[in-house]
Amino acid sequence: MVKCSFCDKPAVYINRVNNLAYCRQHFTEYFEKKVKKTIRKYRMLGKRENIVVAVSGGKDSMALLYFLWKLSKKNPGWSVSALIIDEGIKNYREYTIRNFLRVNEILKVPYRIASFKEYFGMTLDEMVEEGKKKGLPYLPCAYCGVFRRYLINKVAREMGATVVATAHNMDDVVQTFIMNLAKDTLEKLARSGPVTGVARHEKFVRRIKPFIEVTEKETTIYAILNGLIEPEYYKCPYAEYNIRFKIRKLLNELEEVQPGVKQGLLNSMLGIIESLNSRIKAEEIKTCEICGEPSSHRVCRACQFRMELGLLPRVSFELRREKPAL
Ligand code: SF4
Ligand SMILES: [Zn+2]
Ligand SMILES: [Zn+2]
Predict the structure, then answer these.
(1) Predicted TM-score (pTM) of this structure
(2) For site-directed labelling of 88, which of 33, 123, 124, 165 has its Cα 20 to 30 A away?
(3) Nearest residue (CA) to ligand 1, atom 3
(4) Is 238 near ligand 1, meaning CB less than 6 Å away?
(5) What was the pLDDT predicted at 313?
(6) Which of 92, 97, 126, 141 has most ligand 1 atoms within 8 Å of CB, for mutation?
(7) Which residue has the higher pLDDT, 233 or 237?
(8) Once rounded to an integer, what is the mean pLDDT over residues 54-67?
(9) Does ligand 1 come within 6 angstroms of the Cβ of 116?
(10) 17-21 — which CB contacts under 8 Å span 24+ positions?
């Protein structure tokens, strides 16, 4: 049995980068201290905030909700609420939402469930079927990512959010970095930084990633230690279409052979974002001519998809097509 490096108790986690072992109590202290430091370093939260946590009900977002809920007890100027996006993925999302509701019996944070069906008229499963019938080139994760980001911003704004917190951890961000390199879409890197959406458009709600400096493994242990995940693991049925999971496997193998690879990639990514910053900031954010939401084109990606799926009447002007998401 490996013992904690700070006391005699059994270790629940060994950090292979600094070679330290942590018991339950010392792991919690280590994890929470690290996330608080990230929040301070990137000035993520001010004295008065209406924090809306984007929650899927999975381990990462439940860990973030729990962490911010706990921290808000010591910060009277903060309110914490949850926004759950229900894409409509059968045999998957209903279980994670059930997990959120179970944990929220204790946390009792105000919440809102916004579904694709309610806002767009179709579940993700129906969009995938419709896309196939129409011979559209997009994979499920392209619809999922675009519509989810759209709804998080729109509904969080409706909820009066001053800031949206998402549970992206170091692994997620590094995977996105590699995907952007592979797709030659480095300009999208700005979205992967610790704080995004700052004053770029009046309808953009600032987004923060408090877990950007902790790994998926650390977040999972924090979630397990606090009873935030259901014993059964549910995987999205569309995961096989997402190249992210292949990159995740590869990065975990590399980290196993050479601990610290993910941290190195994160540092490189943050350095690139900083040097790209002046150019990215200069880019004009437009307002979608159909729905009025912030967009990098005349018509936002969500409205482009809605038109292609027959959920909106097609407009007459020429739309700029983007490459399908990987
Ligand atoms: S795997 Fe794809 S479809 Fe499933 S939740 Fe993730 S992004 Fe959405
Ligand atoms: Zn200890
Ligand atoms: Zn639009």
Answers:
(1) 0.92
(2) 165
(3) 141
(4) yes
(5) 77
(6) 141
(7) 237
(8) 96
(9) no
(10) 17/259, 17/260, 17/263
